[in-house]
Write a structure and sequence with these properties.
Elements (H helix, E strand, L loop, with lengths): L8 H10 L4 H15 L6 E4 L1 H17 L9 E5 L26 H8 L3 E6 L11 E2 L3 E2 L1 E2 L2 E5 L5 H8 L5 E6 L5 H7 L2 E4 L18 E6 L2 H11 L26 E4 L10 H16 L3 E4 L6 H22 L11 H10 L7 H17 L7 E5 L17 E4 L2 E4 L9 H4 L5 E8 L5 E7 L5 H14 L14
Parallel strand pairs: 2-3, 2-8, 11-12, 11-13
Antiparallel strand pairs: 1-3, 4-5, 6-7, 8-10, 9-10, 9-16, 13-17, 14-15, 16-17
Helix pairs in contact: 2-3, 5-6, 8-13, 9-10, 9-11
Pfam families: Amidase (PF01425)
Organism: Paucibacter sediminis
Protein name: Amidase family protein
Amino acid sequence: MNDNTYLSASELLTRFRAGSLDPADYLETLLATAKRQQATVNCAAGIFADEARERARESGRRWREGRARALEGVPVIIKEETAVKGWPRPLASLVFKDKVAAENHPIVDKLLEAGAIPYFQATNPEFCVLGHTWSKLYGVTGNPWSLAHSCGGSSGGSGAALAAGVAPLATGSDMAGSIRIPSSLCGVYGYKPPFGRLACTPTDEYFAQAVEGPMARSFDDLVLMQNVLAGPHPNSYTTLPFTPLPTEYGDLQGMRIAYSPALGHAALAPDVQRNLLRALEGLRGRGAVVEEVDIRWDLEQINKVLLDGLRAIFVDEFMNDIPDADADKLCSYVRHLRDQAKDAPVSIMPSALLAQQLHREMQAKVWGRGYAAFICATLVSTQLPADQDPVAQAMLELDGQPVEAYLGWCLTPAFNLLNRYPVLAAPTGLSDIGVPTGMQIVANAYDDETVFRVAANHARAGSSRLFVDQFPPAC
């Protein structure tokens, strides 16, 4: 590992500005890292070195001429699902292995306009419908902290690449936890913004459960990236106006924060709970009043209703477009969804009704009682194999409890139903097997600044040492 491999974007900008590091030279360091990790972690869907080198040389000129932009010269990881014009975009599927993106996703435009250098395309599961990252096209992506264990999904390649030192920033997307799951398992920060905060692609305007968002190794970098990505784009008519987030935050003196360790889930692992409680103590040390509230949701029902809603909006129609002749090319988990699409039709209405019910409970127990934020774990366990197949093994046993294998170990889906809530995923430390754990920081609708304020204080409290003095052994 080069001494500069794990520099943050903020540190890079400082060094570029001072002239002590050149963007083109730094890119070569990361290209070597990207090549090296592929033999172990396997998180690259593609590496686009030539165009990145050209952009890095241009960034160097801009720095020397005093024309640098907000992310000038900072290399960025792009989730394969996130379209970059001219890059392959097969959605990890052999069925679409020859597809190429015709235009940039709006957030890619924003990154390029800010001077960032997309160069590394990160793996995701086929059609982004799994909480792990493996497919027939790309194989299994491992977790840099423990290669045999899951890096999460569907933005698992982005999380793994951040942890492997491939770049300091990454894009992700989240329709059932796909930013927050890999953020937790890879030990990085991730943000699921409220719907409308970031521009979506045309035709995705009604897909409110799913949003794009930033991922980064450090809190300060997450703020930096979110401020670049947020706000209107010419191709999107649903994006809200955006006031940039502060880059400096005061303490939490007097802020009331509610928590429920696992939303009533019976299988919360002791090491996940230990790290969560330590993080909460860190927030108390920053002045917050942190109190447990009784939130016990039917998580199995939430998962089913969310998935049915996703099927109604997107999945069933998409699966029915795949010819029968191509069915054998699909991964087991996609074939399973395709089979479901042939069954009885599903509706989006239960999602809307359940979201309203969940919000009313949050209003009664959290927001209406004066709490500014709510915290829970992201996952109940880290004991998840990298190649776990929920079709071959429908149930898992976690901490002595039977758990449904597809989403039963996640505490994320409720906040995709509550899709106007901002949710920030923050690392809390390492589990007993050396895989990171994480927590979700939640605020009421469109109150982005509160989750960032809480996360800033969590970072300053230092209860997690990941990427400070603890680094993945696989790298």
